[in-house]
Amino acid sequence: MNILIFGTGGVGGYFGGKLAQAGFNVTLIARGKHLEAIKKNGLEVESINGDFKVKPKLATDSLAEVPTPDLVILGVKSWQIQKVAKQLKPVISTETMVLPLQNGANNVEELLEILPNQNVLAGLCHLISFVERPGKIKHVSFEPRITFGEIDNSNSERIQSLKTIFDKAKITNLNPENIQLEIWKKFLFIATISGLGGLTRVSIDKIREGEYLYDLLLKTAREIKLVANAKGIPLAEEHLEKAFEIIQNQSQGTTASTQRDIMAGRPSELENFNGFIVKEAQKLGIATPVNKMIYECLLPMEKEARNT
Q1: In whole angstroms, what is the distance from residue 274 CA to residue 190 CA?
Q2: What's the pLDDT tens digit per position in 202-260?
Q3: Residues 269, 291, 206, CA angle at the centre, nearest 5°?
Q4: Quick one: CATH architecture of 181-307?
Q5: Which positions carry the signal peptide feature in this UniProt record (predicted)?
Q6: Pick from 5, 13, 14, 22: which is nearest to 48 by CA?
Q7: Does residue 55 carry a pLDDT above 80?
Q8: Residue 117 main-chain phi, psi, to 5 deg
Q9: Residue-range domain boundaries for the chain
Q10: Fewer CB within 10 Å: C terminus or N terminus of the chain?
Q11: 133 DSSP β-pair partners
């Protein structure tokens, strides 16, 4: 099994490291000093579940060096998906599985605009980790989990095979009855906190402590649920309540990765989060004033980040 990890950041680095540790032929796509460090010393993972270090079969920044992969795990940001898909198209086979783990609700749709349907799976992950320094990934929160499935939710042979791979690598995994619902459940949480976090520039605990800001969080989430339901996704009140349980349980100082990108002046997933909701709502004839306010207020910063 040739496994390609495209993007060796917090997500790709952790899961790629676990797969390499289990003995699979893993290729890591990385760049710059991070790539140099991995080539020289291997990939180091510091985790709340135990530290480890691996030497992948190959670490490179060039797809020309990569053997035809059986599985591609996308560890890039959601706004990079289509660019990466175009790069992958010439090197994958008809049998290659491409598994997106990004935050966002329409990653599968974006992949399907570039890649054949037969190559694309649906997925997401739960994990808080990041590149602490070149060559080192730090996992700080959540039991790492990959949730994955066929787009039509069928329990295919390749899905069963993929489960066996993740089991062997001791990666907690789930093949749900409705992968689209699972994607939107996570999207509901992450899109609710990310935009408002980027706008206020404070941690989740500071937002939830303020009555006005907490109300904005609730309104953001309810608008997301409206759009999901209009698209046929069975997001229910219980899912909204669960998202806010998670928000309430976030420790002091916690921020979302998209919020951190916005605050640092880096390109972010704003378009894939609040921007996506605003544009889908317009198509569906639904009012989403809070998401629109957040999106329009952050858009000038996003444009500036992408021009630098």
Answers
A1: 10
A2: 999 999 999 999 999 999 999 999 999 999 999 999 999 999 999 999 888 888 889 99
A3: 80
A4: Orthogonal Bundle (1.10)
A5: none
A6: 14
A7: yes
A8: -55, -35
A9: 2-177, 181-307
A10: C
A11: 136
Indicate the DSSP class of residue 120: B
Task: Measure CA of the first residue to CA of the last residue in the chain; give whole Å.
Answer: 40
CB-side neighbour CA atoms (13 Å) of 146 = 28
Tokens 């789930």 belong to residue = 174
Q: How many helices (H) and strands (E) does the chain have?
A: 12, 10
The tens digit of pLDDT for each residue in 262-299 reads: 999 999 999 999 999 999 999 999 999 999 999 999 99
Tokens 């998401």 -> residue: 291
One-letter identity of residue 205? D
What letter would DSSP give residue 61? Answer: S
What single letter denotes the amino acid at residue 299? Answer: L
Tell me which amino acid residue 143 is.
E
The domain made up of 2-177 is a member of CATH 3.40.50.720: yes
The residue type found at 35 is L
Query: How far, in whole angstroms, is CA 186 from its chain's centroid?
Result: 10
Instruction: Please give the Cα distance from 33 to 59 (Å, whole number).
Output: 12
Task: Please give the C-alpha separations between residue 169 and each of 125, 146, 254, in angstroms, as whole numbers.
Answer: 15, 12, 29
Q: Nearest to residue 85, comparing CAs of 124, 120, 118?
A: 120
pLDDT at 257: 87
Single-letter amino acid code for the residue at 6: F
User: What does the block give as tokens for 25?
Assistant: 């032929």
Whether residue 192 is predicted with pLDDT greater than 80 in this model: the reply is: yes
CA distances, 244 to each of 97, 188, 223, 237 (Å): 34, 10, 14, 11
Q: Which two tokens stand for residue 249?
A: 């349980």
Given this model, what pLDDT does residue 142 score? 81
